[in-house]
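Internal tracking record. Fields below are filled automatically when a chain is submitted to the structure queue. Please do not edit lines marked as system-generated. If the sequence contains nonstandard residues, flag them in the REMARKS field before resubmitting.
Queue: standard
Priority: normal
Entity type: single polypeptide chain
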Amino acid sequence: MEHTPTTNTSWTWRKICQVKEKLRDGFTTGKWSRNKGIYTVADGYSWLQNEHSKVSWYSLIWNSSIVSKHSYIGWLAMQGRLLTKDKLGTFGIPNDGKCEICQAHMEDHEHMLFKCDFSRLCWSLLWDCLDFRFPLISLSGWFRRWRYKSLIQKQIIAAAIVGLIYHIWNARNICRMEARLQAPWVVIKKLKMELQARFRRHNKLELVQHNGGDVDVIPE
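SYSTEM-GENERATED OUTPUT FOLLOWS
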């Protein structure tokens, strides 16, 4: 516990020693140990997890119904951490600040995901597919409205919303890197195919009750 790595030791060993420092208090006091003083990986993991509070919408981003790459981008979007041009500017990276898609407004999370004409059309097409509508407000605002929805409803709608966030971000990056913009209906078609495959894999592709009617939430 008293070992300090020297400057010429490997990066891997220095990282291991950093973890040792994080666990020091729990180790010396036994706070992390639930099994009669015997350390387990689960105890150490729980100890480190307690450094961060779990947000109320955690399970709506990270669950088996959502494609992993969608969850990752959705998680960053919820925290405003996608590298939009306004964010790059705060890091001192020069850019023109304009939306990569429309070139008419400043690019930040709110504009890119909800206010750009391209994004608005994508959301409109998605709501038509789901026969379901929310006002374009924010991701956290959407999630707060689902308190009384069933689990399957939450999973389906969350998967669709988080998936579209991913595809809007992906379309933006394709536009930047390849100077071409995907059509909104192409974006929605890709998303539908991914959701159909995901829910079939988990045996959740079914009719659900929503707004008083039977809705095939992921139609062919």
